[in-house]
User: Fold these one by one.
Assistant:
Number 1:
Amino acid sequence: MKIDTTSTGGLHTIAQDAIAAEQAGYAGLWTFEGAHDPFLPLLLAAEHTENIEIGTSIAVAFARNPLLLATIGWDLQSFSRGRFVLGLGTQIRAHVTRRYSMPWSQPAERMRDMVSAVRAIWASWTDGSRLDHNGPFYQHTLMPPLFMPNPTEVDGFGPPPIYLSAVGPRMTRVAGEVADGLMSHPFCSPQFLREATVPELAAGADAAGKSLSDIVVHHSVMLAIGENEERIAAARSAIRKQMAFYGSTQAYWPILALHDRQELGPRLRDLSKKGEWDHMTNLIDDDFLDAVAVTVRDPAEAAVELRRRFDGIVDRLGFNTPYAADPTLLTGLLRALGGSGD
């Protein structure tokens, strides 16, 4: 497995984060579309590093259109010399329509069309073919030479790979059909990945004439890590709170159902509407927390556990820590997993 890390600090910290990540031995550095734009920091990350891969995990696809994604993906791929991954996700209806004021409908089918449109645009730039994408959601039929980048800008590596974020069966199948990789959600347990994600991903790949091995699976595992029991307890509390928040979202209820906690979803949703966050957190029991998250006390033992859980199903593994984790401890875990640590 390749081991990745995430930077959420924005433009002011990304250069330092990228340098530190590359020196530590991480294979990839990802940004998240939260309080900051996910693309701009990666330009600085590319400028200050030489080898580490960079990508968005995720950029909200439906907040943009295929031409914008194709352009920025091409530019970051060119500038980084082939180190960029365009990671896309749908977000949920409320955020797309009310936060971004953009249309929402048939997300799986819309995402399939969006990826196909981006690839059609890239093809017109790389081989000079006529742009003629007429999909159900996106139509791109005009590409004058003035607006076409020089294809030599991506010589030797081509346009970037596209990863899609997916939890439900329909989007997971779409990822298998049209994407180069799948980014699972931190709320997904290893059991969910094995029993729900992988079969649907394989079915999508098969429908497109591909094999499961053609799709990179990326997962960010929730980690409770600390130098003493007090710190570990605080980390587990933060993860419990994050899991309660995720569980209140209907899109993630299949994970609850697989773990025989289907009644928990509506309860968490109702409590979230009332703002009863502490009550929500208390509903996440230890057994469920341990099914999703890994508590790290000894890096060597943790590395064995992570490999036990994810070998054979995950190609890229990230560390999800919804609290201020000690980077030294994370680097120790990276080394135990086989990162260079140099």
Note: The longest strand covers residues 216-225.
Number 2:
Amino acid sequence: MPLTPVLSRYWDDPESWTLDTYRRHDGYDALATALQMAPDEVISTVKDAGLRGRGGAGFPTGMKWSFIPQGDGKPHYLVVNADESEPGTCKDIPLMLATPHALVEGVIIAAYAIRSSHAFIYLRGEVVPVLRRLQAAVAEAYAAGYLGKNILGSGYDLELIVHAGAGAYICGEETALLASLEGRRGQPRLRPPFPAVAGLYACPTVVNNVESIASVPPIIRNGVEWFRSMGSEKSPGFTLYSLSGHVTKPGQYEAPLGITLRELLEYAGGVRAGHKLKFWTPGGSSTPMFTDAHLDVPLDYEGVGAAGSMLGTKALQIFDETTCVVRAVLRWTEFYAHESCGKCTPCREGTYWLVQILRRLEQGGGNETDVEKLLDISDSIFGKSFCALGDGAASPILSSIKYFRDEYLAHFERDGCPFDPQLATLFAGVPA
């Protein structure tokens, strides 16, 4: 299955982030086309294309847009979730850094479709280079007449604001993001009502991922059949797969949905020389891990789901046999414990105790009951927390014990970790 560079096709051009470069690659042609269509026709086109949300859940994008009530007399808002911060997930940041205008054009088309006159891009405040590049791109779009009043003479008006968050993983959850955008503490809200009915400022709101929105202009420009010629029937189109870890050539690989890790590793030069695959994540650290037995699982929403995990953000973290699975899971769990907003007891208390037990195991103070305690606490969190952060914290523990229970047991049988952490580093074996 060949790669399909669409969003990434000119990332290596000199100054790929400028308006001039974007225009040379058909930039804003899709906007001109969309503005000649009725808003509902734009929604129908995206719905017919089958574009699914690229932020993790895979919900149909056009369907989400169609949930916005029309003729309600309230302002409508479009919010782009650019708060990418899960371990291993690294597709939206490079997209915004290399081609911010792809996102800006997508925002204008999406906002037009849902009849919104105000749009926001909520970005992590720590990634200052991306913030500056987005702000520059928005300024260029305003100067060129793609934003502001009477866009391209169509009579459509749109104000676009780039908002820098304070840097909290919980704000990747859409309702927590909206709370933060309103100036309040970033914590998830109870649903219903859903954002489509009462979102930002209690008005109808669409929240979409960066890659989802950036994928809209190519659909408008090239058509539904072109988009559906890639991927699978239920998961059509192209997407960005992020390979990191013990792989020869880590990076972004844009391919049709349904490609396998075995095929992607051929493009990436395989697992690092002299080693073999041990385990990997199909969609970031919050998704149940896979092993070398899952190399041929189709990487689309249905294929990964049927194999017992989630496609998530397509963050493929690759780990070879030098890696201690307990140590890797501990690092992820420390992240989730730190980033828990504390609103609900299962996640707030559960992640704390998961960290304590994992640390004890790793340091040689564990016992044979610790594995059952980890399973018990994970079960108390999974599906019982206020939002999906708790599920994300429990998933790697449940799946790692499923596949590597013996490795957990070896930690107390040998009074500590049986692995040398130096061997798992990328510089292992490199002369000083």
Note: DSSP finds 18 helices and nine strands in the chain.
